[in-house]
Every structure is written in C-alpha cells, then in structure tokens.
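[RESIDUES AND BACKBONE]
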Amino acid sequence: MTALTDVSVHDLMADIGRRARAAARRLARASTKEKKAALIVMAAEIRARQADILKANALDVAAMKESGVIASFLDRGTLDTARIEEIAKALEEIAALPDPVGRVLAAWTRPNGLAIERVATPLGVIGIIFESRPNVTADAGALCLMAGNAAILRCGSDSLRSSQAILAALVAGLRTAGLPEDAIQLVPIKDRAAVGEMLTGLGGSIDVIVPRGGKSLVARVQAEARVPVFAHLEGICHIYVDKAADLDMAVTVTVNAKLRRVGVCGSAETLLVDRAVANTHLLPILTALHERGCEIRATEEIRARFPAAVPVTEADWSTEYLAPIISVALVDGVDAAIEHIETYGSHHTDSIITADEATAARFFARVDSAIVLHNASTQFADGGEFGMGAEIGIATGKMHARGPVGVEQLTSFKYRVRGSGQTRP
C-alpha cells in the first residue's frame, strides 16, 4: 500500500476520530437489545465470510513467511477454520454477557437525605493498537461495542488484509442492528505515522489507548501517548514447583504452561523448582519438556543433573521467548521463588504448584502480578477462560484495569445524586 504524506495521514486520522466520537455518542445510549443483536449478526457474518477471511489471511501469511517473521508471530497471525469458529463463538459469548453499562456499582443515602449512586458508563472512544493477531479485530471491536464504546483499531501491517475481512463482518452486524458503522473502524493504511496520530488523542477524540504487542510497541505508546494508557506488557510468566507439589501435577501443568501455545503471553518462560525436591521432581519435569522439543536453559547446578540443558544467562530471566524455550533455576523455598519473580517478572501471570494451602496463600499474598494461580497452567491467562467472552489483552498496570480487559473493564462511572430540595449550609 502506498504510504500517504504526513499531512494526508493527519487528515485521515482526524476524520476517523471525528466519526468515532459521533458514533460513541450514539452507542452510549444504545439499548442492550441493539448491542446484542449486532453481535449475533457479526458472529453469523464471520461464519458466512469464512472463505473471504481465509483468502485474505493466506495473502498475509505468505507475506509474513517471505519477510521471515519468527514462528510465534506466524502462529499468531495464521487463521484456519477452527480459529475462525473461535472468533464467531467469542462474539456470541460476548453477546450473552450482562450489559455492563448502567450497572449500579454502589448506592447510599446521606443523613441530609441525598441518595447517591455510582453507575457504570462507557469510556467513550478507545484506540487499540495491536500486532499480528487478526482475531483481536473482532474481540476488541465486540468488547468495545458491548461496553458502549466506539473503537479505532490499528492492526499490525502483517495482518491488515485479514483484519479488513473480519471488519467487514463486524460492520454488517452494526448495519443490521441500526447502529453507526463508524462504531468500529480499522485504520486502513500501514503508515506508522498513523500510530503517532492516535497517540496524540486525535484532537480529543480518543479517550483511552490500549497497546497490545511487544515491548517496543508498548514502550513507545507509554512514552508518547497524551491520553490514558491501559498497559499490556510482555508476559514473563513463572511456574514455581514447591516442595509440597504433586509430581504428576507438576509435570502436566508445566508442560501445558510452556508448550500448549508458545506464542501467547500466558506461556511460562521460567520454571522455578524448590531445591528440597530437586532429586524427585526436577528431572521428570525437564525430561517431559525436552522430549517435546523444548530447549532448557539452566544454571550449572541443574546442568550437572540434566546435561541436555544449555547455560542460562542473566538476560534469560527477563526474556519473553515466545518460543519452545524455558529458563530453569532451583530456589530455596517459596520466599526465594517470590523474590525471583518480583525481581525478573513482568507482573503478568505466575503460578505455584503445591498441596500446601498455607504456602499457596503466601504466594498469592506476596506475588504482585495481575493473575496469580494455584495448581493451574499459566495459559489460563485469557479473558475467554475467565468467562469474559474475550479480552482486549492482559493489563499489567495497576490503574483502572488489571488482568484480562473485558467489557466491565472498558467502562468508567459517574455519580447520580437525587435530592428533594436540599441546599448546602
């Protein structure tokens, strides 16, 4: 696609922003029935347009292969019939959720008789900047719609054709339900200047920016954005196998956490094993990983026990591999594991395997991550698995939204105060 001039990009993005703001005003008063109807039609259109979506995706995948992208990015960007069905089902699951807009979050009455309510409201216009995954087009657009927000989507250049094909299905749903087609817009150009324009807020049109991608993208957004940001940092996720861990469970959960899909942000990147069970637990876990093609990067202490491992470096502890690679260390109990996680982790998702409830409680209380699990795979870091239908991403910050960002996290609130003539003395 021919790059536009800076002036043309500015004008294009300003127009997208104006249209999104106008659509957001209509969506803020859209009924639950209208929003759910749109989502149901969107799901049907995704299925009906499967051939078109796969054709567009094949062109994107071919271009990615030609450019030599890494395997995890290729996996993220590839669609097949099963993944398209997952997109459609996610839309239906979002449609089945309670409408988050208008919820009374709290209510109380003051001694002077004023009745006060805190009520959920849409955020307005949400800008989502994401890489690789074309399914985010549907997930983000649908979640924003259900929460009464307009969405401006900027996908990675490698998935533009796929995202445009998916967008066509979403627009058909909006049209059928009588909602503005500008409620979900996709930036139609690959020019990176469009991202810069979004980060300015498009003259006040964008209320929140959500980056979903690698460290460099998120760092740029955080550095340059002039509007609030829901940060979605890399997933440096840990599995800690405690001395009270069931061995079979430790093997099964660790293998799933690392290898189910290595290109997702919930894939475990570091394995920590209590030194107290090194003789019983370490080799079975490492052998299971190694036999399934996972590279083990480990300390000299571990390599002496498992020669197939390669030396680990200091940089490995803070690396999101997005590949069949895992770094491994022995630690002296849960406190040492927590210290390692807090030193090197990204506050995304971390899991403890143990039969000791007190140790699990200690881990839960002291690990400051958006998602903390006990006896479960880190790959459950997913809005769909949380019953949210889908998510825009996993927020690792602490302001407003944290963890899976679903429809409830895409709302703000206002206060409604009812009186009977009260004045303030």
About this structure: The CA atoms of residues 199 and 224 lie 6 Å apart. The mean pLDDT is 94.
